[in-house]
Amino acid sequence: MKAAIRSGLLALATASLPAVAYAHTGIGPAGGLGHGFMHPVGGLDHVLAMVAVGMFAAILGGRALWLVPASFVAMMAVGGLLGMEGVAVPFVETGIAASVVVLGLVVALRWNAPTVAAMGIVGLFAIFHGYAHGAEMPLDASGQQYAIGFMAATALLHIAGIGIGSIIARLSGRATTAMRFGGGAMALAGVGLLAGYI
User: Which of 21, 31, 175, 185 is most buried by its number of CB atoms within 10 A?
Assistant: First the structure.
């Protein structure tokens, strides 16, 4: 008897799992958190640029380690709002591809920029990335949850870039070569994006 009740409860719980998943805000059609989170990680251009921002921050170190990624996330939120509101921003796709080229070169050259300059550069490119996220928000998604999703994914990609940059820095003599190779590959991918090959 107990086994039958246990089996029945297990079957009922299993059958109700899809309903439970959709009842949570931000998952599935009812919300935007999942959609927002997946948007940055679903595009090579976004992934490369955001990882490069983290690597750039790791190269600079100190306060830049959090100020540079934070400025990207903040300005990306501004761009996202512009995209959600349908405000026209020119050259968005070009700006995104150019960000991959420029940030790849910054990493390859291990540019030791002043923190304020680095914040300005990444902040400018962040507007284009944010605009693309906001403009492509599903119609049935919650704008606030969607924004939280793409900002969280972006922050995680920055953290990944910081981790990669920190690991490379520990390679001592090979660090410069590894950084040049990684940044150069990113920049080449950006050229491919600009030319329409990727």
Answer: 31
